[in-house]
Protein backbone atom coordinates (compact mmCIF):
# COMPACT_ATOMS: atom_id res chain seq x y z
CA UNK A 1 0.00 0.00 0.00
CA UNK A 2 1.28 3.51 -0.94
CA UNK A 3 1.34 5.94 1.98
CA UNK A 4 -0.64 8.16 2.21
CA UNK A 5 -3.25 6.18 0.22
CA UNK A 6 -4.38 8.03 -2.89
CA UNK A 7 -7.97 8.16 -1.62
CA UNK A 8 -7.00 10.23 1.40
CA UNK A 9 -6.52 13.91 0.67
CA UNK A 10 -3.38 15.79 1.66
CA UNK A 11 -5.40 17.86 4.10
CA UNK A 12 -6.46 14.79 6.15
CA UNK A 13 -2.89 13.50 6.05
CA UNK A 14 -1.38 16.69 7.56
CA UNK A 15 -4.20 17.50 9.98
CA UNK A 16 -5.18 14.06 11.30
CA UNK A 17 -3.01 11.12 10.26
CA UNK A 18 0.40 12.71 10.80
CA UNK A 19 -0.34 14.12 14.31
CA UNK A 20 -2.02 10.83 15.31
CA UNK A 21 0.95 8.83 14.06
CA UNK A 22 3.41 11.05 15.93
CA UNK A 23 1.31 10.74 19.08
CA UNK A 24 1.41 6.92 18.81
CA UNK A 25 5.18 6.91 18.35
CA UNK A 26 5.54 9.09 21.49
CA UNK A 27 3.26 6.74 23.46
CA UNK A 28 5.28 3.72 22.36
CA UNK A 29 8.51 5.46 23.41
CA UNK A 30 6.97 6.31 26.79
CA UNK A 31 5.92 2.69 27.27
CA UNK A 32 9.49 1.55 26.52
CA UNK A 33 11.10 4.14 28.81
CA UNK A 34 8.92 3.74 31.89
CA UNK A 35 8.35 0.37 33.54
CA UNK A 36 4.68 -0.46 33.11
CA UNK A 37 2.64 -1.57 36.14
CA UNK A 38 2.02 -5.34 36.32
CA UNK A 39 -0.65 -5.88 33.71
CA UNK A 40 -3.42 -8.51 33.95
CA UNK A 41 -1.85 -10.56 31.17
CA UNK A 42 1.24 -11.19 33.29
CA UNK A 43 -1.01 -13.14 35.71
CA UNK A 44 -2.38 -15.44 33.02
CA UNK A 45 -0.01 -17.90 31.36
CA UNK A 46 0.61 -17.67 27.60
CA UNK A 47 -1.03 -21.12 27.29
CA UNK A 48 -4.20 -19.94 29.03
CA UNK A 49 -4.36 -16.72 26.99
CA UNK A 50 -3.90 -18.57 23.71
CA UNK A 51 -6.38 -21.36 24.56
CA UNK A 52 -9.02 -18.91 25.84
CA UNK A 53 -9.10 -17.22 22.43
CA UNK A 54 -10.09 -20.53 20.87
CA UNK A 55 -12.43 -21.55 23.70
CA UNK A 56 -14.41 -18.36 24.26
CA UNK A 57 -16.61 -18.79 21.14
CA UNK A 58 -17.84 -22.11 22.64
CA UNK A 59 -19.10 -20.67 25.95
CA UNK A 60 -22.72 -20.90 24.81
CA UNK A 61 -22.45 -24.71 25.07
CA UNK A 62 -22.80 -24.16 28.82
CA UNK A 63 -26.12 -22.31 28.56
CA UNK A 64 -28.23 -25.21 29.80
CA UNK A 65 -30.71 -24.72 32.66
CA UNK A 66 -30.41 -26.76 35.88
CA UNK A 67 -32.90 -29.50 36.71
CA UNK A 68 -36.36 -28.05 37.46
CA UNK A 69 -38.49 -28.63 40.54
CA UNK A 70 -41.11 -30.58 38.56
CA UNK A 71 -38.45 -33.07 37.45
CA UNK A 72 -37.30 -33.67 41.04
CA UNK A 73 -40.91 -34.32 42.08
CA UNK A 74 -41.37 -36.69 39.13
CA UNK A 75 -38.30 -38.66 40.25
CA UNK A 76 -39.77 -39.00 43.75
CA UNK A 77 -43.05 -40.31 42.29
CA UNK A 78 -41.25 -42.83 40.07
CA UNK A 79 -39.25 -44.05 43.08
CA UNK A 80 -42.43 -44.45 45.17
CA UNK A 81 -44.04 -46.61 42.46
CA UNK A 82 -41.01 -48.91 42.27
CA UNK A 83 -40.80 -49.20 46.07
CA UNK A 84 -44.43 -50.21 46.18
CA UNK A 85 -43.85 -52.79 43.44
CA UNK A 86 -40.82 -54.14 45.31
CA UNK A 87 -42.80 -54.51 48.53
CA UNK A 88 -40.64 -52.21 50.65
CA UNK A 89 -41.90 -49.33 52.77
CA UNK A 90 -39.24 -46.73 51.97
CA UNK A 91 -35.90 -45.81 50.42
CA UNK A 92 -33.27 -44.31 52.74
CA UNK A 93 -30.17 -42.36 51.70
CA UNK A 94 -27.42 -40.25 53.27
CA UNK A 95 -26.29 -37.07 51.44
CA UNK A 96 -24.91 -38.51 48.18
CA UNK A 97 -25.57 -38.54 44.45
CA UNK A 98 -28.91 -40.21 45.26
CA UNK A 99 -30.09 -37.33 47.47
CA UNK A 100 -28.86 -34.87 44.80
CA UNK A 101 -30.93 -36.79 42.30
CA UNK A 102 -34.16 -37.11 44.27
CA UNK A 103 -34.23 -34.00 46.41
CA UNK A 104 -31.41 -31.61 45.41
CA UNK A 105 -29.57 -32.36 48.69
CA UNK A 106 -25.96 -31.98 47.64
CA UNK A 107 -23.54 -34.87 48.04
CA UNK A 108 -21.08 -32.28 49.40
CA UNK A 109 -23.05 -32.09 52.66
CA UNK A 110 -20.53 -33.22 55.25
CA UNK A 111 -21.25 -36.70 56.65
CA UNK A 112 -20.68 -36.95 60.39
CA UNK A 113 -21.28 -39.73 62.87
CA UNK A 114 -24.73 -38.20 63.50
CA UNK A 115 -27.10 -39.46 60.79
CA UNK A 116 -29.01 -37.04 58.56
CA UNK A 117 -31.21 -39.17 56.29
CA UNK A 118 -33.51 -38.58 53.34
CA UNK A 119 -36.47 -40.95 53.31
CA UNK A 120 -38.98 -41.38 50.48
CA UNK A 121 -41.69 -43.95 51.05
CA UNK A 122 -43.92 -46.02 48.81
CA UNK A 123 -46.71 -43.43 49.10
CA UNK A 124 -44.36 -40.67 47.99
CA UNK A 125 -44.11 -39.13 51.46
CA UNK A 126 -40.85 -37.20 51.91
CA UNK A 127 -39.23 -37.35 55.34
CA UNK A 128 -35.90 -36.26 56.78
CA UNK A 129 -34.30 -37.62 59.92
CA UNK A 130 -32.18 -34.83 61.43
CA UNK A 131 -30.15 -34.29 64.59
CA UNK A 132 -32.22 -31.79 66.59
CA UNK A 133 -29.42 -29.26 67.03
CA UNK A 134 -28.74 -29.31 63.24
CA UNK A 135 -32.38 -28.82 62.22
CA UNK A 136 -31.93 -25.10 61.53
CA UNK A 137 -28.94 -25.59 59.27
CA UNK A 138 -30.56 -28.47 57.39
CA UNK A 139 -33.80 -26.52 56.87
CA UNK A 140 -31.76 -23.93 54.93
CA UNK A 141 -30.77 -26.46 52.23
CA UNK A 142 -32.38 -26.04 48.78
CA UNK A 143 -34.23 -29.33 49.26
CA UNK A 144 -37.06 -30.13 46.84
CA UNK A 145 -40.21 -31.88 48.12
CA UNK A 146 -43.96 -31.59 47.95
CA UNK A 147 -44.79 -32.16 51.59
CA UNK A 148 -42.05 -32.80 54.12
CA UNK A 149 -42.15 -34.48 57.49
CA UNK A 150 -39.14 -33.92 59.74
CA UNK A 151 -38.20 -36.39 62.45
CA UNK A 152 -35.68 -34.87 64.83
CA UNK A 153 -33.66 -36.96 67.25
CA UNK A 154 -32.03 -35.79 70.43
CA UNK A 155 -28.69 -36.95 71.74
CA UNK A 156 -30.32 -38.98 74.56
CA UNK A 157 -31.94 -41.45 72.11
CA UNK A 158 -31.13 -43.70 69.16
CA UNK A 159 -31.84 -41.91 65.85
CA UNK A 160 -32.94 -45.23 64.37
CA UNK A 161 -35.46 -45.85 67.12
CA UNK A 162 -36.79 -42.34 66.57
CA UNK A 163 -37.19 -43.20 62.89
CA UNK A 164 -38.86 -46.55 63.60
CA UNK A 165 -41.25 -44.93 66.05
CA UNK A 166 -41.98 -41.96 63.83
CA UNK A 167 -42.71 -43.92 60.63
CA UNK A 168 -43.73 -47.47 61.55
CA UNK A 169 -41.68 -48.82 58.61
CA UNK A 170 -40.90 -52.54 58.75
CA UNK A 171 -38.76 -53.01 55.64
CA UNK A 172 -36.59 -50.37 53.94
CA UNK A 173 -34.20 -50.23 50.99
CA UNK A 174 -30.81 -48.62 51.66
CA UNK A 175 -28.98 -46.50 49.08
CA UNK A 176 -25.73 -48.00 47.74
CA UNK A 177 -23.70 -45.12 49.23
CA UNK A 178 -25.19 -45.22 52.75
CA UNK A 179 -22.69 -46.29 55.39
CA UNK A 180 -22.89 -49.70 57.05
CA UNK A 181 -23.57 -48.05 60.42
CA UNK A 182 -26.90 -46.76 59.04
CA UNK A 183 -28.01 -50.25 57.97
CA UNK A 184 -26.82 -51.76 61.26
CA UNK A 185 -28.58 -49.07 63.31
CA UNK A 186 -31.88 -49.57 61.47
CA UNK A 187 -31.69 -53.34 61.91
CA UNK A 188 -31.00 -52.92 65.60
CA UNK A 189 -34.15 -50.79 65.82
CA UNK A 190 -36.11 -53.72 64.34
CA UNK A 191 -36.38 -52.54 60.70
CA UNK A 192 -35.52 -55.04 57.98
CA UNK A 193 -32.96 -53.62 55.55
CA UNK A 194 -32.54 -54.66 51.90
CA UNK A 195 -29.88 -53.43 49.43
CA UNK A 196 -30.68 -51.09 46.55
CA UNK A 197 -32.19 -53.05 43.66
CA UNK A 198 -31.05 -52.90 40.05
CA UNK A 199 -34.46 -51.50 39.07
CA UNK A 200 -34.08 -48.57 41.44
CA UNK A 201 -30.46 -48.05 40.41
CA UNK A 202 -31.60 -47.76 36.80
CA UNK A 203 -34.05 -44.93 37.67
CA UNK A 204 -30.93 -42.74 37.98
CA UNK A 205 -28.77 -44.39 35.29
CA UNK A 206 -31.47 -43.75 32.65
CA UNK A 207 -31.22 -40.05 31.79
CA UNK A 208 -34.04 -37.60 31.08
CA UNK A 209 -33.94 -35.12 28.19
CA UNK A 210 -32.90 -32.32 30.58
CA UNK A 211 -30.10 -34.44 32.01
CA UNK A 212 -28.91 -35.37 28.51
CA UNK A 213 -28.84 -31.66 27.61
CA UNK A 214 -26.65 -30.94 30.65
CA UNK A 215 -24.29 -33.84 29.92
CA UNK A 216 -24.06 -32.81 26.27
CA UNK A 217 -23.34 -29.21 27.27
CA UNK A 218 -20.52 -29.90 29.72
CA UNK A 219 -18.95 -32.73 27.71
CA UNK A 220 -18.91 -30.90 24.38
CA UNK A 221 -17.49 -27.85 26.18
CA UNK A 222 -14.81 -30.05 27.77
CA UNK A 223 -13.83 -31.35 24.33
CA UNK A 224 -13.67 -27.76 23.03
CA UNK A 225 -11.31 -27.00 25.94
CA UNK A 226 -9.01 -29.92 25.01
CA UNK A 227 -9.07 -28.76 21.37
CA UNK A 228 -8.15 -25.23 22.42
CA UNK A 229 -5.24 -26.58 24.52
CA UNK A 230 -4.00 -28.68 21.57
CA UNK A 231 -3.73 -25.57 19.42
CA UNK A 232 -1.55 -23.84 22.01
CA UNK A 233 0.59 -26.53 23.72
CA UNK A 234 4.21 -26.43 22.61
CA UNK A 235 7.31 -28.59 22.97
CA UNK A 236 9.12 -27.47 26.14
CA UNK A 237 6.00 -26.78 28.19
CA UNK A 238 5.65 -28.51 31.54
CA UNK A 239 2.86 -30.75 32.73
CA UNK A 240 2.02 -28.19 35.43
CA UNK A 241 1.52 -25.44 32.82
CA UNK A 242 -1.11 -27.63 31.12
CA UNK A 243 -2.81 -28.49 34.42
CA UNK A 244 -2.87 -24.86 35.65
CA UNK A 245 -4.16 -23.54 32.32
CA UNK A 246 -6.91 -26.18 32.25
CA UNK A 247 -8.12 -25.20 35.69
CA UNK A 248 -7.97 -21.50 34.82
CA UNK A 249 -9.97 -22.08 31.61
CA UNK A 250 -12.77 -24.00 33.37
CA UNK A 251 -12.83 -21.37 36.12
CA UNK A 252 -13.05 -18.50 33.61
CA UNK A 253 -15.96 -20.31 31.95
CA UNK A 254 -17.73 -20.55 35.32
CA UNK A 255 -17.45 -24.35 35.62
CA UNK A 256 -14.30 -24.62 37.74
CA UNK A 257 -16.16 -26.38 40.52
CA UNK A 258 -15.54 -30.13 40.28
CA UNK A 259 -12.57 -29.63 37.96
CA UNK A 260 -9.92 -32.37 37.67
CA UNK A 261 -7.25 -33.17 35.06
CA UNK A 262 -4.55 -35.67 34.11
CA UNK A 263 -1.91 -34.27 31.73
CA UNK A 264 0.68 -36.96 30.98
CA UNK A 265 3.68 -36.67 28.66
CA UNK A 266 5.37 -39.56 26.82
CA UNK A 267 6.05 -42.66 28.93
CA UNK A 268 4.43 -41.00 31.94
CA UNK A 269 1.09 -41.99 30.37
CA UNK A 270 2.05 -45.68 30.62
CA UNK A 271 0.35 -45.62 34.02
CA UNK A 272 -3.29 -44.91 33.09
CA UNK A 273 -3.74 -42.55 36.04
CA UNK A 274 -0.25 -41.06 35.92
CA UNK A 275 2.63 -41.04 38.32
CA UNK A 276 5.55 -38.65 38.41
CA UNK A 277 5.08 -34.92 37.86
CA UNK A 278 7.32 -32.11 36.65
CA UNK A 279 8.01 -33.40 33.14
CA UNK A 280 8.79 -31.15 30.16
CA UNK A 281 7.29 -32.05 26.79
CA UNK A 282 9.85 -33.43 24.31
CA UNK A 283 9.70 -33.85 20.55
CA UNK A 284 8.35 -37.34 19.68
CA UNK A 285 6.04 -37.61 22.72
CA UNK A 286 2.28 -37.77 22.92
CA UNK A 287 0.32 -35.68 25.44
CA UNK A 288 -2.53 -37.56 27.13
CA UNK A 289 -5.17 -35.22 28.56
CA UNK A 290 -8.01 -36.77 30.61
CA UNK A 291 -10.17 -34.00 31.98
CA UNK A 292 -13.56 -33.14 33.42
CA UNK A 293 -15.70 -30.73 35.39
CA UNK A 294 -19.37 -30.22 36.30
CA UNK A 295 -22.37 -28.26 35.05
CA UNK A 296 -25.20 -28.00 37.63
CA UNK A 297 -23.88 -31.20 39.22
CA UNK A 298 -23.55 -33.19 35.96
CA UNK A 299 -20.05 -34.43 35.14
CA UNK A 300 -17.82 -34.42 32.09
CA UNK A 301 -15.06 -36.91 31.34
CA UNK A 302 -13.11 -36.62 28.07
CA UNK A 303 -9.69 -38.00 27.06
CA UNK A 304 -7.60 -37.16 24.04
CA UNK A 305 -4.06 -38.21 23.13
CA UNK A 306 -2.70 -35.27 21.17
CA UNK A 307 0.33 -33.74 19.48
CA UNK A 308 1.14 -30.03 19.28
CA UNK A 309 0.73 -28.55 15.81
CA UNK A 310 3.87 -29.37 13.80
CA UNK A 311 5.12 -32.03 16.25
CA UNK A 312 5.37 -35.70 15.28
CA UNK A 313 5.87 -39.15 16.78
CA UNK A 314 7.31 -42.29 15.14
CA UNK A 315 5.15 -44.12 12.57
CA UNK A 316 5.10 -46.98 15.04
CA UNK A 317 3.43 -44.86 17.73
CA UNK A 318 0.99 -43.36 15.20
CA UNK A 319 -0.06 -46.93 14.33
CA UNK A 320 -0.84 -47.60 18.01
CA UNK A 321 -2.93 -44.39 18.18
CA UNK A 322 -4.93 -45.77 15.23
CA UNK A 323 -5.45 -49.15 16.95
CA UNK A 324 -6.94 -47.37 19.99
CA UNK A 325 -9.19 -45.35 17.66
CA UNK A 326 -10.36 -48.58 15.96
CA UNK A 327 -11.06 -50.15 19.38
CA UNK A 328 -13.15 -47.10 20.27
CA UNK A 329 -15.07 -47.51 16.99
CA UNK A 330 -15.83 -51.14 17.85
CA UNK A 331 -17.10 -50.13 21.30
CA UNK A 332 -19.24 -47.35 19.85
CA UNK A 333 -20.90 -49.60 17.27
CA UNK A 334 -22.07 -51.93 20.09
CA UNK A 335 -23.42 -49.26 22.43
CA UNK A 336 -27.10 -49.71 21.66
CA UNK A 337 -29.95 -50.63 24.01
CA UNK A 338 -30.08 -54.35 24.81
CA UNK A 339 -26.35 -55.08 24.32
CA UNK A 340 -24.56 -56.72 27.28
CA UNK A 341 -21.91 -54.53 28.93
CA UNK A 342 -19.41 -57.42 28.78
CA UNK A 343 -19.96 -57.84 25.02
CA UNK A 344 -19.25 -54.14 24.37
CA UNK A 345 -16.05 -54.33 26.40
CA UNK A 346 -15.16 -57.52 24.51
CA UNK A 347 -15.69 -55.91 21.09
CA UNK A 348 -13.19 -53.13 21.85
CA UNK A 349 -10.76 -55.62 23.45
CA UNK A 350 -10.78 -57.90 20.36
CA UNK A 351 -9.43 -55.10 18.19
CA UNK A 352 -6.52 -54.49 20.56
CA UNK A 353 -5.84 -58.22 21.06
CA UNK A 354 -5.72 -58.82 17.30
CA UNK A 355 -3.13 -56.04 17.00
CA UNK A 356 -0.97 -57.80 19.61
CA UNK A 357 -1.49 -55.35 22.49
CA UNK A 358 -4.11 -57.30 24.46
CA UNK A 359 -2.11 -57.43 27.69
CA UNK A 360 -1.49 -53.68 27.55
CA UNK A 361 -5.19 -52.77 27.61
CA UNK A 362 -5.34 -52.99 31.37
CA UNK A 363 -8.73 -51.49 32.29
CA UNK A 364 -12.43 -51.82 31.44
CA UNK A 365 -13.91 -50.03 28.43
CA UNK A 366 -15.94 -47.51 30.42
CA UNK A 367 -18.31 -46.42 33.16
CA UNK A 368 -21.62 -44.63 33.54
CA UNK A 369 -21.56 -40.83 33.85
CA UNK A 370 -24.08 -38.44 35.38
CA UNK A 371 -24.22 -36.87 38.84
CA UNK A 372 -21.22 -39.09 39.59
CA UNK A 373 -18.03 -39.24 37.54
CA UNK A 374 -18.16 -43.04 37.80
CA UNK A 375 -21.57 -44.70 38.22
CA UNK A 376 -23.51 -47.65 36.72
CA UNK A 377 -23.55 -49.04 34.08
CA UNK A 378 -19.96 -50.36 34.14
CA UNK A 379 -18.65 -51.65 30.81
CA UNK A 380 -16.40 -54.51 31.91
CA UNK A 381 -15.96 -58.20 31.12
CA UNK A 382 -17.70 -59.33 34.32
CA UNK A 383 -20.92 -57.33 33.87
CA UNK A 384 -23.62 -59.11 31.88
CA UNK A 385 -26.23 -56.39 32.52
CA UNK A 386 -27.74 -55.06 29.30
CA UNK A 387 -27.51 -51.39 28.38
CA UNK A 388 -30.81 -49.53 28.61
CA UNK A 389 -32.19 -46.81 26.40
CA UNK A 390 -30.93 -43.35 27.49
CA UNK A 391 -28.17 -44.60 29.75
CA UNK A 392 -24.84 -42.78 29.41
CA UNK A 393 -21.42 -44.46 29.61
CA UNK A 394 -17.88 -43.59 28.57
CA UNK A 395 -16.15 -45.43 25.71
CA UNK A 396 -12.44 -45.24 26.59
CA UNK A 397 -10.08 -47.96 25.40
CA UNK A 398 -6.32 -47.51 25.90
CA UNK A 399 -2.91 -49.11 25.40
CA UNK A 400 -0.22 -48.63 28.06
CA UNK A 401 3.37 -49.80 27.72
CA UNK A 402 6.00 -48.90 30.33
CA UNK A 403 9.58 -48.24 29.31
CA UNK A 404 10.60 -51.62 30.84
CA UNK A 405 7.93 -53.40 28.77
CA UNK A 406 8.76 -51.44 25.61
CA UNK A 407 11.90 -53.55 25.03
CA UNK A 408 9.74 -56.67 24.53
CA UNK A 409 7.92 -54.86 21.75
CA UNK A 410 11.11 -53.65 20.07
CA UNK A 411 10.51 -50.08 21.22
CA UNK A 412 12.83 -47.78 23.15
CA UNK A 413 10.47 -45.88 25.45
CA UNK A 414 7.08 -46.49 26.95
CA UNK A 415 3.87 -44.68 26.10
CA UNK A 416 0.18 -44.51 26.93
CA UNK A 417 -2.66 -43.78 24.53
CA UNK A 418 -6.34 -43.42 25.44
CA UNK A 419 -9.34 -41.88 23.69
CA UNK A 420 -12.57 -41.26 25.61
CA UNK A 421 -16.02 -39.99 24.70
CA UNK A 422 -19.16 -40.30 26.82
CA UNK A 423 -21.92 -41.98 24.82
CA UNK A 424 -25.72 -41.81 25.01
CA UNK A 425 -27.35 -45.21 24.44
CA UNK A 426 -30.13 -45.19 21.84
CA UNK A 427 -32.03 -47.92 19.95
CA UNK A 428 -29.83 -47.43 16.92
CA UNK A 429 -26.44 -47.15 18.57
CA UNK A 430 -24.27 -44.79 20.54
CA UNK A 431 -24.54 -41.01 20.22
CA UNK A 432 -21.48 -38.90 21.12
CA UNK A 433 -22.09 -36.42 23.97
CA UNK A 434 -18.86 -34.62 23.00
CA UNK A 435 -20.25 -33.91 19.52
CA UNK A 436 -17.28 -35.36 17.63
CA UNK A 437 -14.57 -38.00 17.83
CA UNK A 438 -10.83 -37.41 17.52
CA UNK A 439 -9.78 -37.20 13.87
CA UNK A 440 -6.04 -37.39 14.54
CA UNK A 441 -3.57 -36.37 17.30
CA UNK A 442 -3.50 -32.90 15.69
CA UNK A 443 -7.25 -32.68 15.32
CA UNK A 444 -8.70 -33.93 18.60
C1 LIG B 1 -31.00 -26.95 43.84
O1 LIG B 1 -29.92 -26.45 44.61
C2 LIG B 1 -29.18 -25.43 44.00
C3 LIG B 1 -27.98 -25.13 44.87
O2 LIG B 1 -28.34 -24.95 46.20
C4 LIG B 1 -30.09 -24.24 43.80
O3 LIG B 1 -29.37 -23.20 43.17
C5 LIG B 1 -31.27 -24.64 42.94
O4 LIG B 1 -32.16 -23.58 42.81
C6 LIG B 1 -32.00 -25.84 43.56
N1 LIG B 1 -33.02 -26.32 42.62
C7 LIG B 1 -34.31 -26.29 42.89
C8 LIG B 1 -35.23 -26.82 41.85
O5 LIG B 1 -34.75 -25.88 43.95
C1 LIG C 1 -48.49 -33.90 54.41
O1 LIG C 1 -48.18 -35.19 54.88
C2 LIG C 1 -48.77 -35.52 56.12
C3 LIG C 1 -48.24 -36.86 56.53
O2 LIG C 1 -48.44 -37.82 55.54
C4 LIG C 1 -50.29 -35.47 55.98
O3 LIG C 1 -50.88 -35.73 57.24
C5 LIG C 1 -50.72 -34.10 55.48
O4 LIG C 1 -52.08 -34.08 55.22
C6 LIG C 1 -49.96 -33.73 54.20
N1 LIG C 1 -50.26 -32.37 53.82
C7 LIG C 1 -50.53 -32.01 52.58
C8 LIG C 1 -50.79 -30.56 52.35
O5 LIG C 1 -50.54 -32.81 51.64
TrEMBL record:
SUPFAM superfamilies: Creatinase/aminopeptidase, Creatinase/prolidase N-terminal domain. Keywords: Membrane, Transmembrane, Transmembrane helix. InterPro entries: Creatin/AminoP/Spt16_N, Creatinase/aminopeptidase-like, Creatinase_N, Pept_M24, Peptidase_M24B. The chain crosses the membrane at residues 12-34. Residues 224-427 form the Peptidase M24 domain. This is Probable Xaa-Pro aminopeptidase P. Residues 75-206 form the Creatinase N-terminal domain. It comes from the Eukaryota. Gene3D superfamilies: Creatinase/methionine aminopeptidase superfamily, Creatinase/prolidase N-terminal domain. The keyword Nucleotide-binding does not apply.
Amino acid sequence: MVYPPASISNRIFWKVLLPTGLFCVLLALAALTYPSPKSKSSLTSPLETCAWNHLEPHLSLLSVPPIRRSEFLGRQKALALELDAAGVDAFIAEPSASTSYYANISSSFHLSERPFLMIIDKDGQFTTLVPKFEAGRIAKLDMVFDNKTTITWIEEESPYEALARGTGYEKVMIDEHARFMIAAGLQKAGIEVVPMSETIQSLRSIKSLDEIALLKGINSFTLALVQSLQRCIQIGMTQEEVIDASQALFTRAGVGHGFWVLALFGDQAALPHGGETGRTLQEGEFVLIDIGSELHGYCSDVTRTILPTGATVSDDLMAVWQIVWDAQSAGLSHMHAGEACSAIDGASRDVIKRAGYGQYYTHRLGHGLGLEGHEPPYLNGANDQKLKLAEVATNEPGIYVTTEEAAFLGKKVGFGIRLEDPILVTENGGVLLTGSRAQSPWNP
